[in-house]
Specification:
tRNA_(Gua-N-7)_MeTrfase_Trmb, 9 helices, alpha/beta, tRNA (guanine-N(7)-)-methyltransferase, about 240 residues, Rossmann fold, methyltransferase, transferase, 8 strands, binds S-adenosylmethionine, S-adenosyl-L-methionine, about 20% strand
């Protein structure tokens, strides 16, 4: 690989946030069973082993930045035959997702705490994911912070390499210039093709099935348009 797969600096800022009482309870009860630390997986203290985590071999979708877990839980409930890995650094969000999946009795979600880019780079095998989802990544709107944006050429090449042939990279953002950046970067990645190439601007219509999260709600209130992009990993000839 000629380009560093990592954004030069992390795409997130890790604030230690207090858990609510309910979140703490869910964390203590369920994290040991349903959660894993990316740090442990990177050091080799624990394997990256979806088959063991889920007790089966099924199509695997990895979400980067699951936030409070609304989309993750809803999409996992709607697709019981697909296993979902939610990667997030924000503990209250992970705790909230634990509450959602245990209340709903979902067994097809595993939570990972830590940097999804390092995980993809160092542990996720090439060609192993049916999908990668990135919904409303941190927009880093100030020009001097743009280098923190997740969706950059090296990252997109990495994501494409982790998808199985035909696997989908689904991106959504409410920041116009980030949407343009995503499209430019993904269009330039030879291993990907835009599934909506024939539609105006190459944008995918907002899928009905994606729940409206706090971030999308705020975008609507503030008058920003949401853009979805769905790229497919090409089958190598
Ligand atoms: C703006 S929030 C959106 C959350 C959620 N997808 C939604 O639509 O509500 C972006 C989230 O991505 C997480 N994040 C950013 N970079 C990440 C990385 N490299 N690995 C894991 N999580 C990351 C942040 O902690 C944050 O919670």
């Amino acid at each position: 690989m000629t380009e560093a797969p990592h954004p030069p600096i992390p795409s997130f800022v890790h604030h230690r946030s207090r858990l609510t009482e309910g979140q703490q309870h869910a964390w203590d009860r369920w994290w040991p069973e349903r959660g894993h630390d990316v740090g442990d997986i990177l050091t080799g203290a624990e394997p990256y082993d979806p088959q063991a985590w889920f007790g089966r071999r099924a199509p695997l979708v990895l979400e980067i930045g699951s936030g409070m877990g609304e989309s993750t839980a809803a999409l996992a409930a709607a697709a019981p035959d697909v296993d979902h890995i939610a990667v997030e650094v924000y503990e209250p969000g992970l705790a909230q997702l634990l509450m959602r999946i245990t209340e709903a009795g979902l067994t097809n979600v595993t939570l990972l705490r830590g940097d999804a880019v390092a995980l993809l780079d160092q542990r996720v095998p090439p060609g192993s994911l049916a999908g990668i989802r990135i919904f409303f990544p941190d927009p880093w709107p100030k020009r001097r912070h743009r280098k923190r944006r997740l969706v950059q050429p090296g990252f997109v090449a990495l994501a494409a390499a982790r998808l199985e042939p035909g696997g989908l990279l689904h991106l959504a953002t409410d920041w116009d210039d980030y949407a343009q950046q995503m499209r430019t970067v993904c269009d330039a990645e030879p291993a990907l093709e835009n599934t909506a190439a024939d539609r105006p601007g190459g944008w995918t219509p907002r899928p009905e099935w994606r729940p409206v999260t706090k971030f999308e709600q705020r975008a609507r209130v503030e008058g920003r348009t949401v853009h979805d992009l769905v790229y497919r990993a090409r089958r190598t000839p």
